[in-house]
Amino acid sequence: MKCLIIAHSRILGNFDGIDDLSRLPDEEFFVVDMDALLRGKFNFKIYSLISRYVEFNLMAYPSMETDFVDMIIAGASRVVVNHTLSNEKIRDFMEVSDQIIMHYRSQLEARDFIKTGGKYLLGCSPVDAAKGIQIFYYGMSIPGENYIPLTDFPEELRYDC
Fold first, then answer.
1. b/e map of 23-51 (b: 16 or more CB within 10 Å)?
2. Does residue 89 carry a pLDDT above 80?
3. pLDDT at residue 73 above 80?
4. C-alpha 129, offset from chain centre
5. Going edge to edge, which strands form the sheet with 134-137?
6. Three-state SS for 50?
7. Residue 145 pLDDT > 90, yes or no?
């Protein structure tokens, strides 16, 4: 799955405009909002525009339930949360939607997330997970039907490799 990077309130790469997304062969993208991750500035308008053309998973690390809800409303199919989020906050988010991806750093974090009902993970190391758990990964190749490789994932976000 290809990553689209948002920085400085625009999609990076060879895009003349948002309409270019409709011409790409991919039907689903992994969107990384660097503005949100580095400065806490969410690009809701861009999320809404992207959702008109393709399905996408969003990495923006919401810490408040209102931001999480706004990301889903803006069109994100799934939203990535940081491993530093409390289990209580994750359960609150799960009451809104179970379409949460946990960016895990360790096997323990991944297992705890799965125990709370999580079905999607993001990381670069293999996880002992039951069938039905999907793992988006970057870095080294991980074989298995549960694993979805991400291309163009930003190097500066690979803290767990």
1. eeeeeebbbbbbbbbeeeebbbebbebbb
2. yes
3. yes
4. 19
5. 10-11, 2-7, 28-33, 55-59, 78-82, 100-103, 120-123, 134-137, 147-149
6. helix
7. no
